[in-house]
Write a structure and sequence with these properties.
This protein is an alpha/beta fold and 250 residues long. It has one domain: 3-Layer(aba) Sandwich (Rossmann fold). It is built from nine helices and seven strands, in the order βαβαβαβαβαβααααβ. It has a seven-stranded parallel beta sheet, with helices on both faces. α1 packs across α9 and α3 packs parallel to α4. It binds nicotinamide-adenine-dinucleotide. Nicotinamide-adenine-dinucleotide (NAD) binds next to α1 and α6.
């Protein structure tokens, strides 16, 4: 590993896909800002980065809070003076029927996935514009391409997040900034297991069984968080300049 001097912020990197992205980008030589709402999870990721010889800072915060976002950006600039790559990864899912989803629950879904992506993008872009270079990568979802009986609010939010990816791509390419998405299908992370109770309530089986069912329905080995991270690493690279406004499905 050689330190490229480049700096990447990864939201929600205390766990799952975000942690895999943080570790992979660190292996590629980036200095990492580990951002997560959970201090303990973020600290664990920083320790893993350190154990593989990388450099990171831990900035705990909520992506729905403009103050937390500003603080993350300010601490990054104070530490390293630049932001090269920003990954909007923080998220969660909730299994519920259309009729059981409340207004507060759909608002929360949009606050985290859509408003969080919007606000964080707005906060990092001026620092990218100042240097004429940047990579914004949003972790959307294959579920954002359609609808379902049990995750309507999640799917609507992931669809809107993908729309923001495209608008940012058009808005900032003149400044040397690209904006793309990586869209996972199913990855075994906390996102599923935290819904165990509702899988049992609404679908009659556990989160683990849901993952087994999905794995049985595919012809390849299951997608892992590192597979998402490798696609992110590819899009983050300087020579991916001509890939803009795209979505890579994994
Ligand atoms: N796991 C999948 O199958 C799958 C599929 C498609 C898309 N995704 C997307 O991947 C992203 C990562 O999910 P994951 O599967 O790794 O889940 P995960 O639960 O393992 O990780 C999500 C992380 O985000 C953090 N987080 C949640 N809300 C936050 C907030 N408001 N502010 C800051 N941090 C917050 C959590 O603390 C957690 O560490 C999400 O955007 C999710 O929608 C996941």
């Amino acid at each position: 590993m050689s330190n490229t001097g480049q700096v990447a912020i990864v939201t929600g990197s205390g766990s799952g896909i975000g942690r895999a992205i943080a570790l992979h980008l660190s292996e590629l030589g980036y200095q990492i800002v580990v951002q997560d709402i959970s201090s303990q999870r973020a600290q664990e990721t920083c320790e893993l980065i350190s154990s593989q010889g990388g450099t990171s800072i831990n900035v705990v915060g909520d992506v729905t809070s403009p103050a937390d976002i500003e603080r993350t950006v300010a601490e990054t600039i104070s530490m390293w003076g630049r932001i090269d790559v920003h990954i909007n990864n923080a998220g969660f899912c909730q299994v519920k029927t259309f009729m059981d989803i409340t207004l507060d629950e759909i608002k929360k879904m949009f606050e985290v996935h859509v408003f969080g992506t919007f606000l964080f993008t707005k906060a990092v872009v001026p620092h990218m514009q100042a240097r004429g270079y940047g990579r914004i990568i949003n972790i959307v979802s294959a579920m954002g391409n359609g609808g379902s009986e049990f995750t309507s609010h999640y799917q609507a939010a992931k669809s809107a997040q993908q729309s923001l990816t495209r608008s940012a791509a058009i808005s900032f390419i003149k400044d040397g900034i690209t904006s793309n998405s990586v869209s996972p299908t199913t990855v075994d992370t906390n996102l599923f297991h935290e819904n165990d109770e509702n899988f049992r309530k609404y679908l009659g089986h556990s989160a683990g069984d849901e993952l087994k069912r999905r794995a049985a329905g595919i012809r390849t080995t299951p997608v892992e968080a590192i597979d998402i991270a490798r696609a992110v690493g590819f899009l983050a690279a300087p020579d991916s300049y001509h890939i803009n406004g795209q979505v890579i499905g994994i």
